[in-house]
């Protein structure tokens, strides 16, 4: 029997309407993280102070 591999399997990128997730490379300790990119779906409007009466 062969020894189990310490390497994590490559996970395909996940994509939905608002978010995309990709697997990052393992660091020196072997931790495999995931990068999450969010799509902006709200627009920011510059704030204007209200007129004084």
Describe this structure in words.
With 53 residues, the chain is an all-beta fold. Helix content is 0%, strand content 23%. It contains no helices and three strands. Strands 1-2-3 form a three-stranded antiparallel β-sheet, with no helix packed on it. A hairpin with a 3-residue loop joins strand 1 and strand 2. It is elongated and about 80 Å long. The N and C termini lie far apart (83 Å).
Q: How many helical elements?
A: 0
Q: How would you describe the shape?
A: elongated
Q: List the uncertain runs.
A: none
| Mean pLDDT across residues | 85
Radius of gyration equals 21 Å
Query: For this entry, what is the oligomeric state of its chains?
Result: single chain
Give the arrangement of secondary structure elements.
Layout: E1 14-15, E2 19-23, E3 34-38
Antiparallel strand pairs: 1-2, 2-3
Explain briefly what this protein structure is.
This protein has strands at 14-15, 19-23, 34-38.
Main attributes?
single chain, mainly beta, 3-stranded antiparallel beta sheet, 3 strands, 0% helix
